[in-house]
């Protein structure tokens, strides 16, 4: 738990400053948080609803960060 907090602070700062790498790190962490337990323990811990919610959250985050132009092509650019 303390490791997750220590690693999470720079990620949260990148997300707060609307940097594109914060999005990629966040999305990777979400997917690894679901897939790694499956690899270690097996499919007993797999939660399809958790996967769907995490995927939808990442898609919504992507749409917002792209709309403001933090990933390179936003609404204000031609």
Annotation, overall tally of beta strands: 0
From the spread of the alpha carbons, the general shape counts as flat
Largest sheet: none
| Overall domain count | 1
Instruction: Give the helix proportion (percent range).
Output: over 70%
Describe the 3D structure.
It contains three helices and no strands. With 78 residues, it is an all-alpha fold. The chain has one domain. The radius of gyration is 15 Å and the shape is flat. The protein starts with a helix and ends in an 11-residue tail after the last helix.
Write a concise keyword list for the protein shown above.
single chain, 78 residues, mainly alpha, disordered C terminus
Write a brief caption for the model.
The chain is mainly alpha-helical and 78 residues long.
List the helices and strands and how they pair.
Elements (H helix, E strand, L loop, with lengths): L1 H15 L3 H21 L7 H20 L11
């Amino acid at each position: 738990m303390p490791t997750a907090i220590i690693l999470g602070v720079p990620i949260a700062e990148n997300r707060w400053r609307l940097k594109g790498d914060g999005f990629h790190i966040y999305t990777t962490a979400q997917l690894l948080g679901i897939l790694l337990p499956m690899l270690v323990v097996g499919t007993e811990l797999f939660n399809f609803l958790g996967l769907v919610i995490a995927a939808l959250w990442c898609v919504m985050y992507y749409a917002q960060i792209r709309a403001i132009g933090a990933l390179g092509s936003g609404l204000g650019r031609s």
